[in-house]
Design brief:
Elements: H1 8-29, H2 60-71, E1 74-79, E2 82-87, H3 90-99, H4 113-116, H5 131-144, H6 147-152, H7 154-174, E3 178-179, H8 180-197, H9 202-225, H10 242-266, H11 286-294, H12 305-319, H13 321-336, H14 338-351, H15 367-379, E4 385-389, E5 394-396, E6 399-401, E7 406-410, H16 411-414, H17 430-434, H18 437-445, H19 462-479, E8 480-484, E9 512-517, H20 520-525
Length: 526
């Protein structure tokens, strides 16, 4: 595995570059149009050269929350050579995601993207709002991640969850604690790999593991490269070799996808009424669907194989680690709140019984389970800060927002706003269980509950992610009691809820647990 640690001397060097790049930007700014004619959002006191960098700690969303609490729901920040606005209220988010949704339908690009990506120009996630993005979004919502397609993968999810439960049982039998972060990433990766590429043979399982490691490496290097944005024009230079590492990792991912693409093109298509021996090809996987669309001369947009590989990189990056982290938070919350754990288990036993495992078709009968997951996502959204770029001058919250301004929407702050939520920092699933369906929809409509972002650029895989979280957490509660495994083997301790410093909201410390089996049918089938 590539070493991704930032050395202290690198940070000192970055600071030196901050000075040079910001001075350059200041010099260039003298030739720009005067801005005093606009009513711009307020800005905290800043320092020369570095701007507000000294106000940003290692946990971005909490730093932005602190600044917004002091200076208002829409503020302006200068981070070295980079400038952005920070939106931290549901009313401001509603203007961005609804009133001016089209104006903010662009994700800002990073300086290093052109230098590092083999898929530049083929990205769905970063594509400008236009024909290609609309075409891919339509595919996601209808043929790839639509309700009917997800129903075809019910057995895939159930099988992988059973394998996951078996691994937990074996750990208990071997007397070994389990790092739930690792196990949950394996689970979510295996589900997506099977949905995307029908992987289950010995060779393809190795491919799935290789895919998981590559995506983790690409995400980790990409997060560090984002720091280069504060360097302005110098951000394009590969100071510490991160661009080289990114290119190498993406090239290895591309080679892997190319092998799998060629395998899909070689094997004959099966009639879905004729099952294969292993039952894996009864339905088309996502790669089959995309390959068919790429060969359709009547398609609205020509989909290339490079575009297919780019789509899968973004699918794995956005759907593996994020869901796993959300489920870690949910399990940790339930461990720390045994009363809520008991309520969920009682609900499952009442609606499902003790003679079989909970299934996806049971989820609609488990409203308290759903409330647990929603409350988890409210407190710990996996993407706590989402970014947009303004494509034309507009007004937000009474302030002028100029074209090409980057805006960070702090979902974490919005969903912990005391003006919207009673006791916002407390874990209270009842707030979703007691409220009517209409009330919850109203919260989402008013951008008070937006764990997957908002507007037309919100996460297209949210339905799949929620389903996996529901059935996985239900199975873990139904089948096991959970104890935290601490130092010196201690187990009667709460889960540590300290936030990690990554761009996605993970736990600062591994969630290492001892699963204690409870459900007899589970033990029998294992």
């Amino acid at each position: 595995m590539v070493d991704l640690t930032i050395e202290p001397q690198h940070l000192c060097f970055l600071f030196f570059i901050f000075l040079i790049s910001t001075l350059l930007c200041l010099c260039l700014s003298f030739h720009r149009k005067p801005r005093n004619q606009f009513k711009l959002p307020p800005s905290p006191p800043s320092l020369p050269i570095i701007g507000h960098l000294h106000l940003i700690g290692s946990i971005l969303h909490q730093s932005l929350q602190s600044l917004s609490n002091k200076h208002g729901p829409l503020i302006s920040l200068h981070l070295g050579a980079s400038h952005c606005l920070v939106a931290s209220s549901s009313s401001i988010a509603k203007e961005i995601f609804k009133t001016h949704d089209l104006i903010f339908a662009l994700r800002p690009k990073f300086a290093f993207e052109e230098q590092t990506s083999l898929y530049h120009g083929c990205s769905f996630l970063m594509a400008p709002y236009g024909p290609y993005w609309r075409f891919m979004k339509k595919l996601c919502m209808t043929k790839l991640l639509g309700e009917q397609q997800l129903k075809r993968f019910v057995c895939v999810k159930q099988e992988e969850i059973r394998r996951f439960l078996k691994r937990l049982l074996k750990s208990y039998q071997d007397g070994k604690p389990v790092d739930m972060g690792v196990e949950l990433r394996v689970l979510t990766n295996n589900i997506i790999c099977r949905m995307a590429m029908s992987t289950r043979s010995a060779e393809s399982i190795n491919e799935a593991e290789e895919c998981r490691e590559l995506v983790h490496e690409i995400s980790a290097v990409g997060a560090k490269m984002c720091l280069g944005e504060v360097l302005g024009p110098f951000g394009k230079l590969d100071w510490f070799g991160y661009q080289r590492k990114m290119k190498e990792a993406i090239k290895r991912f591309d080679d892997l996808m190319e092998r799998i693409l060629q395998e899909h093109q070689r094997r004959p298509h099966k009639n879905k009424n004729n099952n294969d021996q292993d039952g894996e090809r009864e339905n088309k996987d996502l790669m089959d669907i995309l390959l068919e669309i790429s060969q359709d001369e009547k398609a609205e947009v020509k989909l290339t194989q490079t575009g297919i590989k780019s789509f899968f990189l973004e699918t794995f990056s956005g759907g593996t680690d994020t869901s796993a982290k959300a489920m870690q938070w949910a399990l940790a919350l339930l461990i720390n709140h045994p009363g809520e754990f008991k309520k969920v288990r009682d609900e499952i036993e009442l609606m499902v019984g003790k003679t079989r495992l909970v299934e996806e078709s049971d989820i609609h009968k488990l409203p308290y389970l759903q409330a647990i997951i929603k409350e988890t996502l409210r407190l710990y959204p996996t993407f706590p800060v989402v970014s947009r770029e303004c494509t034309q001058d507009c007004k937000i919250g009474g302030y002028d927002v100029l074209k090409k301004t980057r805006v960070l929407v702090n979902l974490y702050t919005i969903m912990r706003d005391p003006n919207s939520w009673e006791e916002p920092n407390e874990f209270r699933p009842q707030r979703f269980f007691v409220n009517s369906k209409e009330s919850i929809q109203n919260q989402m409509k008013n951008n008070k509950f937006i764990p997957f972002g908002g507007g037309r650029r919100s996460c297209p895989g949210s339905s799949h992610a929620l389903t996996v979280m529901y059935i996985t957490i239900a199975s873990m509660v139904q089948c096991f009691d959970w104890k935290i495994h601490g130092e010196n083997g201690a187990t009667s301790i709460p889960a540590n809820m300290e936030h990690g410093s990554e761009l996605t909201l993970g736990m600062a410390h591994p969630l290492v647990c001892l699963p204690i089996p409870q459900l007899c049918p589970f033990i029998a089938f294992s």
